[in-house]
Amino acid sequence: MKRCSPRGQGSSAAALVAGCDTAGFAELADLPTLGRRALRAMRQGVRANVRPLTAVPLGINLPESRPSPVFPFLIEFAVTKVRDFLGPYRLARLIRMGSSCQVWEAIKEGDQQRYALKVLRSEFRGNKEELGYLKNEYAIGSTLNHPRIIKMYEFVTDAETPFLVLELFSELNMKQALREGPDPIAYLVDKCVEYSAEALSYLHTRGYLHCDLKPDNLLVDREGEMKLIDFTIAEKQKKGLSKLFGGRSQVRGTRSYMSPEQIRGKVMDPRSDIYSFGCVLFELVTGRPPYTGDTPNALLNKHLQAPIPSVLVHNSNVSDEFAGLIKRMMAKQPNERPETMWEFLKKFRGMKLFKKAPRVPEVSIFDSHPAARTRPEDMFKT
Q1: 214-231 tens-digit pLDDT
Q2: How many Cβ atoms from other residues are within 10 Å of residue 285's Cβ?
């Protein structure tokens, strides 16, 4: 997730991106190669209370020496003060490392069930803003009960470091599944879209907006099952007087998927998430986001002013009807988009998605991607 906090009151894209920072997760399986000596030191534990680095996925080439921009992340992992246990949860494997949080697979003592722990990194334990994001995620996520939304079980603040306890699901998100282009998962598009839309529709009926919908926040498994995740900046929909006199909203989100009204800090409604979902669907069938820019300012301005691109330019196999629906979702004006996710679903379920049905690939992306371990019995294999 990228959080943006404007330092000025202007509505220009340049003012809105001032001070933005990036909190996206770096996938361990995709890390650049590391030096042998550094890895050997980390495997030895560096400190007596640190487990050896056997949790890092294998398959990383190790030349004698090559600098890595993410090396500090791994150093912290090697010397972290987070021990084998957080409360009753035994840390089994580091799944993902972010700039403010780590995600661990963990086993709860007693019931031996596996969970995902979203753990605030040590240097952010006293950071009220980061702690507030976790609190907000739990406050919203714990009230949701839907098969397409990740379950949240508890928010622990009395441990050595605050953490969320989540349902453990596929480690492969849609962004990772698209690393080799759209073709390997084209046969799952119908399920991916419908299940994601169902999750978003449910979220809206509960009165919430996600505000950071993107491929990274949609987990997918080999059967096409989906889970919507990350409610860090989700918010309650403004209605009535609060919608009329609520003032400017804080500008937060991920630039490649932000709606024009979100960029401008205006009051949002479900159609803002629908715009972001349209950007996600564009990327799902083309393998690329709808807009790119040389600078953050240029990228945001394209959401505000550039013509809406057609998916047919990048994938001629998409049906005209589906291409038209995606384009409508990405309309600059909210009143030109589908009014609700339910309206979208009714249209989507009645249309043909591709001119020629996609084939199931001989080698599944879920077998070839090192982060894809969707079956519980595979979770500890290396």
Answers
A1: 999 999 999 999 999 999
A2: 24
Rounded distance between C-alpha atoms, residue 97 and residue 23, angstroms: 10
Contact, 72 vs 360, CB < 8 A?
no
Per the DSSP assignment, residues forming a β-bridge with 101 are 120
The burial of 111, by beta-carbon neighbours within 10 Å (0-12 exposed, 13-18 middle, 19 or more buried), is given as: exposed
The pLDDT tens digits of the residues spanning 330-362 come to 999 999 999 999 999 999 999 999 999 999 998
The CA distances from residue 136 to 1, 54, 142, 175, 257, in Å, are: 14, 33, 10, 24, 21
Torsion of CA 320, 323, 325, 328, to 10 degrees: -120
59 Cβ neighbours under 8 A, 6+ residues apart: 29, 370
322 membership: H or E segment, kind and range:
helix 320-329
pLDDT, one tens digit per residue, over 156-187 is 988 778 999 999 998 789 999 999 999 999 99
Q: Provide the token pair at 224.
A: 């096409």
Amino acid occupying residue 21: D
Helical (H) or strand (E) element with 286: helix 270-286
Place of tokens 């976790």: 134
Do 220 and 226 touch, CB atoms closer than 8 A? Answer: yes
CA terminus-to-terminus distance, the chain: 28
Using CA atoms, how far residue 299 sits from 93, 274, 290, 296, in Å, is: 36, 19, 10, 5
What 3-state DSSP class applies to 196?
helix
* Distance from C-alpha of 302 to C-alpha of 7, rounded to nearest angstrom: 21
| Torsion over CA: 267, 269, 275, 277 (sign) | positive
Look up the pTM and report it.
Answer: 0.77
Tens-place pLDDT, residues 255-287: 999 999 999 999 999 999 999 999 999 999 999
Looking from the CA of 193 toward its CB, the CA atoms found within 13 Å total 28
Taking each helix axis from N to C end, the angle separating 320-329 and 341-348, rounded to the nearest 10 degrees, works out to 170
Residues 6+ away with beta carbon under 8 Å from 180: 365, 368
Best CA proximity match to 213, nearest among 253, 182, 251, 186: 253
Q: Partners of 351 in the beta sheet?
A: none
Instruction: Please write the tens of the pLDDT for every residue from 292-324.
Output: 999 999 999 999 999 999 999 999 999 999 999
